Amino acid sequence: MKPINVGILGLGTVGGGTFNVLMGNAAEIARRAGRPITVSHVAAREYDPTQLVGLDNVEICDDALALAQNPDIDILVELIGGYSPAREIVLKAIENGKHIVTANKALIALHGNEIFAAAQQQGVTVAFEAAVAGGIPIIKAVREGLAANHIEWIAGIINGTGNFILSEMRDQGRDFADVLQEAQALGYAEADPTFDVEGIDAAHKLTILASLAFGIPLQFDRCYTEGIGQIEPQDVIYAEQFGYRIKHLGITRKTEEGIELRVHPTLIPEKRLLANVDGVMNAVLVKGDAVGPTLYYGAGAGSLPTASAVVADIIDIARTLTTDPGNRVPHLAFQPDELSDDPVITMDAVQTAYYLRMTVADKPGVLAAISNILSDADISIEAMQQKEPHGGATEVPLVMLTHTVREHSMNAAMAKIKALDTVSGDIIRMRVEQLS
Questions:
Q1: How do 99-102 and 126-127 pair as beta strands?
Q2: Which of 92, 127, 152, 192 is the S-S candidate for 287 at Cβ 3.0 to 4.6 Å?
Q3: Among the listed ranges 48-57, 76-85, 206-215, 404-413, which one has the minimum average pLDDT value?
């Protein structure tokens, strides 16, 4: 049977890994795909030929747009990342009848609706398993393995950098800035770590998961995003004293009011499996009405784990090349004309429990004033700790957990508490999820 020709854009960490897997496992891949899959062309400006086996037999250029229009290529693998020129290159390749495989979560989250519509019109496939959680096959699990279910919610650790930082803060008692510097030295975080520590990377991935789970269009601009930079070692300690651990979670849930779509630091019970995912590993917990909770764990980044997902997508496309385009697995799990208009709700409408830490004056009546404000807002306290002053200090930390409340009520109560003369500085607030 005629080989399938693949063109790869980019020979960086993931591109190089993908090239080596396709070359090194060519015989096994052909057995699975039913035909040979050949890397015939590569577009890359910088690469290390000593790390790429079999490069001598491949046509190399530095013009990605030319590759997108090359008539000899069946599948274009986009691994350059970013919004542009990736969008323009992918759309040009689709226009030229090429199937697409990408690991670019930013591209899918922001421009996926446009890209999938173009692919539908041309009868080609866009595969993006590697865009979420690296080597974990979470896209296929939600889109195909759990297709019989109403998905109720998804909660995931989907950024390894943030998870590494929080794990080190807990295990070693280190400050955020100190661990971030080490993460950069180890290559887990970029020189500009904003996408990782502020939750933007996780929000890209969660946007994709929410669309797959609930059949809604991709809406990255509706995702609430909050980073981990304000967390201090004392918060990690207090959380553990309450029986919780802090994780930077992406959470999407279907409610009667609409779809929750949020990324933020979250306290979860320490006995939950998700609470015990440490280091740079990723894990995604999916709750379906028929199957119940299912957990997917593995490497969320890295050359070969991500290449594993990229090559799996290439094999899937190879298997379906003879299938009528209308009978292929839909890009976003649901048929394009069956997407829902369920709204993505604002954070003000989300209901969850809260962890609060504030610095208060060490004198009578302070706790009563704070409790009255919370009571007037119908916010009940589940647990509370007021620390003893040390060395003649006149202020002490006050830490509490609340029961579930709507966020706009909590915001109003926090504003009143912060206005008290006996409360100084910012109030640290994190949400609490039981994930049961």
A1: parallel
A2: 152
A3: 48-57
Pick from 172, 251, 202: nearest CA to 432:
251
Short-list 30, 33, 203, CA closest to 132: 203
* Cα angle value 201/205/210 (rounded, 5°): 140
User: pLDDT tens across 292-321, in order?
Assistant: 999 999 999 999 999 999 999 999 999 998
Strand partners, 286: 154, 294
d(CA 297, CA 295): 6
The topology (CATH level 3) of 350-432 is Alpha-Beta Plaits (3.30.70)
Catalytic (active-site) positions: 205
Instruction: Identify the architecture of domain 4-135+303-338 in CATH.
Output: 3-Layer(aba) Sandwich (3.40)
Q: Widest CA span of the chain, in angstroms?
A: 83
For the chain, what is the mean pLDDT?
Answer: 95
CATH architecture of 138-299: 2-Layer Sandwich (3.30)
The pLDDT assigned to 324 comes to: 77
Residue whose tokens read 């004309």: 337
Q: Per DSSP, what are the bridge partners of residue 127?
A: 101
Each domain of the chain, given as residue ranges in start order, spans 4-135+303-338, 138-299, 350-432
Q: How far apart are CA 210 and CA 5, in angstroms?
A: 33
Which residue pairs from 190-194 have beta carbons closer than 8 angstroms and sit at least 24 positions apart in sequence? 193/161
